[in-house]
Design a protein that fits this description.
The protein is α+β, with helices and mostly antiparallel strands and about 130 residues long. It has one domain: 60s Ribosomal Protein L30, Chain: A. The radius of gyration is 14 Å and the shape is globular.
């Protein structure tokens, strides 16, 4: 049996910067592509601080989750990529504004990101609630 896959492109949501879908629904889960702190309305970074970019990143993730019928409480796995280990605490501070216990499983990696000015990228997986 082949599992159905459906791409999600919400109006006013983040646009992909390459040949990928912002989100895919499959097997009762939604898989969100990595999101960054770009404002979908302007295409520009929301700011040059980790807090500003983290809030916009979470807003972008929230838009995709909502379009899939989910919320942050449905998230089971988060992968976070930050460009400087010194950003870890500030990122956690914003992260706690969106997630509550029990927190999703999470990996946080310090790395270089493709576009200049980006301080973080976050992707996640959420379980779609049964209706």
């Amino acid at each position: 049996m082949i599992d159905e896959r459906r791409a999600i492109y919400p109006e006013g949501g983040p646009k992909p910067g390459g040949p990928y879908s912002p989100a895919i629904v499959s097997g009762g889960f939604v898989f969100l592509a990595g999101q960054v702190g770009n404002d979908p309305a302007t295409g520009k970074l929301a700011g040059d601080t980790i807090e500003a970019q983290a809030r916009q990143t979470m807003k972008n993730l929230g838009t995709l989750l909502k379009a899939a019928g989910c919320d942050f409480k449905d998230v089971v796995k988060v992968n976070a990529y930050i460009t400087n280990a010194e950003f870890f605490q500030e990122f956690n501070s914003v992260y706690r504004e969106y997630f509550v216990e029990p927190y999703p499983a999470r990996s946080t990696v310090v790395c270089a990101l493709v576009n200049p000015g980006l301080l973080l990228e976050v992707d996640l997986i959420a379980k779609i609630p049964e209706v």
